[in-house]
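Limitations

Structures in this collection are predictions, not experimental determinations, and the ligand pose is part of the prediction. Treat each record accordingly. The example that follows, with (R)-mevalonate as the small molecule, is included so readers can see exactly what is and is not provided: the inputs are given verbatim, and the output is the predicted complex.
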Amino acid sequence: MVVSSAPGKVYLFGEHAVVYGEPAVPCAIERRARVTVEERDDDRIRVHAEDLSINGFTVEYGDGADEAPDVDVAESLVQAGIGYIDAAVEQARDAADAPDAGFDVTVESEIPLGAGLGSSAAVTVAGIDAGTRELGVELPTEEVAERAYRAELEVQDGEASRADTFCSATGGAVRVEGDDCRAIEAPELPFVIGFDGGAGDTGQLVAGVRALREEYGFAADTVESIGDIVRFGEEVLAEGDVAELGQLMDFNHGLLEALGVSSRSLDQMVWAARDAGALGAKLTGAGGGGCIVALDPTEATRTALEYTQGCETAFRAGLDTDGVRVEAE
Ligand code: MEV
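Predicted complex:
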């Protein structure tokens, strides 16, 4: 039996603009998905999942395409729950050259699903790491990241960026521009996260920005300006000026708001954080609902968010410099 874990992430800067070739800076956070994998005697897969958004379910299935998972929850939930595990299992089988390996898989995640915190990437990265190790193969981190990216591409019908999987595999702060992903220096970042209990529709939100950008030159300029914030922000990160990073986050949120991807609850949480004295706050991920990220070394922002209308839960999660790691073997 092997247990591996991998972190979720927030976007310090650059979501949406990254779709048009601008750079972005995702950062791993101290919230993890843990995946336990145990090889079976047969070629079947049994998945048990526990998550902030899912009360827990178990499915068991074989390799036959005609064999539907036998489970008593909505089809979409099953797809969300096991799609990534299935793709991770395929990658682990491929990497270990063991096409018929069967597994019992348990997923425990502290990362809400579909809320902009990279939960699917964390599950996929940890699943591939644990699965390959269980089959006696130890992959370099870069290969875990590459295979997790391919797994996400498969589940998401060819629509995935490398940002989430690379960041989850390596940990720390990351710079992403097109296919180029690299780790960058960052000071300790006191992240506070507010979650409205919901999730935006990433495809729809990305399409909305695309339409605005095609219709209005100033919307295209707004996307480019987000790129400028990221380029400037990289220098500020290297200098370690956390207060200025906060200012840039505020600016970034304003531009995302202008592009129509914020929401009332996200704005309410952003303003509650700013009123509480956060150094800066912005939505993270696709928007439309889900999470905001603020910078505050004190308890004030978390406490204020707890009492903010529209905020379901708030928690502190610092920058996690550890990427995928083995928890038990
Ligand atoms: C979603 O987490 C981030 C977006 O930039 C989409 C993407 O990069 O694929 C909105």
